[in-house]
Amino acid sequence: MSPGLAVGLVIVVALLVLSLATGEYSILSHDDGWEMFRNVRIPRTIALVLAGAAMSMSGLVMQLITQNRFVEPTTTGTTEWAGLGLLLVMAVVPRPGILMRMSGAVILSFIGTMVFFLLLRRVSLRSSLLVPIIGMMLGAVVSAISTFFALQTDMLQSLGIWFQGSFTTVYRGQYEVLWLVLGVVVAIFYYADRLTAVGLGEDIATNIGVDYRRMVLIGTGLVAIATGVVTVVVGSLPFLGLIVPNLVSMRRGDDLRSNLPWVCLVGIGLVTACDLISRTIISPFEIPVAVVLGLVGAVVFIALIIRHIRRS
Q1: For domain 3-311, which CATH number applies: 3.30.420.240, 2.60.40.10, 3.40.47.10, 1.10.3470.10?
Q2: 271-294: per-residue pLDDT in tens?
Q3: Can you state the angle between helices 256-280 and 42-66, rounded to 10 degrees?
Q4: Entry pTM
Q5: Running DSSP on this structure, what letter comes out for residue 179?
Q6: What does the angle CA 109 – CA 112 – CA 114 come to, to the nearest 5 degrees?
Q7: Is there a contact between 76 and 113 (Cβ–Cβ < 8 Å)?
Q8: How far apart are CA 111 and CA 75, in angstroms?
Q9: What is the SS3 assignment for 131?
Q10: Nearest alpha carbon to residue 210 among 189, 223, 191, 186
Q11: How many CA atoms within 13 Å lie on the side-chain side of 114?
Q12: Residue 253 exposed, middle or buried by CB count within 10 Å (0-12, 13-18, 19+)
């Protein structure tokens, strides 16, 4: 482990310890303090780790597949497709379990992401900035369909809650499905070299013996699983997959395998820091972490666009 990575690990661990210690309920002065700590704070902190790592790495995978630094699940409509899948399951099946909701979100995430990729293949792009614009337009269309459907089925309030992006509903018995995204993280590490080849383009990947289309399907499936699971448990975490890979690559270059530990650490650290701000900025109340993350992400997104325009 490099000294820089060790320092980053220490900082992230410190943030996670601070997350465990933060809360309006005093676990030291109440008899049920340990139970509260075990049932709420530990699950919430684990969710921060899993969601932060998974969504950051999902953004990195999408950027490799599209060869565009401005894409991630919330700028390609993937999150909106996951919400539509969740809504359809809730409308068809009364009181579905979390696994069924997750399945609906994952399936629609995969379909929606593939629709986005197929759309890119049919559109002549003169600028890389058009890619996230197309993705956000597609996401807006899907979001409008979801809103209309939610109005017709009297689930508009539920739809708003699902997309608020908050860890307040994460507690023991409701977060365990998030462990599935650990498999996504492991799979991305395993396929790192082949995903790097995919990022070089179809011709180069094929010439060095990588099945380009198969890897695109695998990468899309991994992104769909991560997005669907996180959307069901936490909600939308905007721009996380955009901010982290770009910050890491600007500092360290584009070596995917060596960047993956940094992407994990920075993603976990960023979402934990934003969560701490959301819990303390208007204490004793709490705002959704998506609000803080969205503000940070919007600033970084604009900065990246300006940087790209100046280089062009």
Answers
A1: 1.10.3470.10
A2: 999 988 988 888 778 888 888 888
A3: 140
A4: 0.86
A5: G
A6: 110
A7: yes
A8: 16
A9: helix
A10: 191
A11: 16
A12: exposed
